[in-house]
Amino acid sequence: MLLASLPGAVRAGAQTFGLDGQPAPKAARADWVVQARGLEQRADWPGLLALGQAWARTEADNPLAWFVQGRAWSALGRPTEAIAAYERNLRLAPDDVQARNNLGSLLRDSGRPREAMRAWRAAVEIDPGYLPAWHNLGLTFYLTRGQAGVSQALDRLRATDPALAEVWRRLAVEYSLTRDPRVADEAVRVLRGLSEPARARLFDILLDG
Predict the structure, then answer these.
(1) How many separate domains does the chain show?
(2) Percent of the chain scored above 70 by pLDDT?
(3) Full domain range(s) for residue 61
């Protein structure tokens, strides 16, 4: 079954601010967070942008102030500004996987799929269980390399390490098809158990091959 056969498969959505009402990823003043969530829920993108800019003037070193701007600029169809905001976010919080995921989506949609896949690679290296980045990585790999590219990558991985091939098949192929988190559970467990060199080998084969 091809990924492209799924309706709407070619686009992967941005991660929302604070993960849909869950605690925001880094401590911030509660009033900024509440306002940002409310504006996003109402899809008031100019309002969200103005809030993010005001927030950054008050707390320029708070990565969430820049995440909010990235989210707003992206929704307003201004990818250059959104990319710059997420890059500022990541200079302040390099481990922010949500920002890396959204940055990757913007890079992909700007015609820079290789850079996008590197952004998602960084996200899953930080958190192997972060499924949105796995989905985006697998989907974009398929869309840029095609079925033949997916099969070639699996063959190379099997020749190097069958465990790596199984991780990639489950997370980047099966999960991208089904979006069922249960499909990814075992692969994430295996991935977490891999050594750092083994994980690097996985991505070197996929992204540099």
Answers:
(1) 2
(2) 85
(3) 27-94
- Closest alpha carbon to 132 in 156, 103, 159: 103
CA dihedral of residues 144, 6, 3, 198 (deg, nearest 10)? 100
Please list, residue by residue across 174-188, b when 16 or more beta carbons sit within 10 angstroms of its beta carbon and e when fewer do: bbbbeeeeebbeebb
Token match 């008031």: residue? 44
Q: Could you give the CA distance from residue 208 to residue 111 in angstroms, rounded to a whole number?
A: 18
Q: Are residues 104 and 201 in the same domain?
A: yes
Write the pLDDT tens digit of every residue in 104-160. 999 999 999 999 999 998 998 888 888 888 888 888 888 888 888 888 888 888 888
b vs e for 32-71, b when ≥16 Cβ sit within 10 Å of the residue's Cβ? Answer: bbebbbebbeeeebebbbebbeebbeeeeebbbbbbbbbb
Task: Count CB atoms within 10 A of the CB of residue 20.
Answer: 10
Distance between CA atoms of 134 and 69, rounded to whole angstroms? 24
* Length in residues, the chain: 209
